[in-house]
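We modelled each protein-ligand pair independently. The example shown here corresponds to the zinc ion entry; the chain sequence is given first, followed by the ligand as SMILES.
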Amino acid sequence: MSGGFPNILEELIEKLEKLPGIGRRSAQRLAFHLLKISNKELDNLVNNIIEAHRCIKPCNLCNNFSTNEICQICANPKRDRETICIVETPQDVLAIEKTAQYQGLYYVILGALSPLEGVGPGELNIGKLLNRLSKGEIKEVIISTDPDNEGELTAQFLIEKISKYKVKIYRISIGIPLGTQIEYIDPSTLGKAIIDRRIVI
Ligand SMILES: [Zn+2]
């Protein structure tokens, strides 16, 4: 669908439209905004995107966003190193950090099982997690995948895998409607869900 704009503008709108959560109207709004900002603002924005893309990588231990080999949470000696909270995305780490109710470490599996979208166990990033559990330092695992279908399926899969190790397994206690996502739960509700975690095994 062409909006009758010059090709170069139409291409920009199409590229922006491919970004997550951006429909045609938002893409147009963003493109028009970008045309109006000063050269300096544009340079700053472009440089910021390039720098973030270049510098941010998954933490070697937990897959969280990091500018170093090891992220700030994994490198923090004050964190409880016997507890690992498993989440789907780095956004979930941020959401749980905001609750200020959790002092342990994280492991980000970078997704969730989704038979409809063709995401199977092979696509989940759990190799480093199992390797770590095999070393015996971790005593407690809190599975905090989303309380939706994919998240529940993933939790079951993780429980099966992790139950082979000598750790206590907990599931975050969701007193919230099924189908919501961890990153959108308000900090006080999410904090309570962590405190009230229920033991699975
Ligand atoms: Zn880390």
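Helices lie at 7-17, 24-36, 39-55, 72-75, 90-99, 127-134, 149-162, 187-195.
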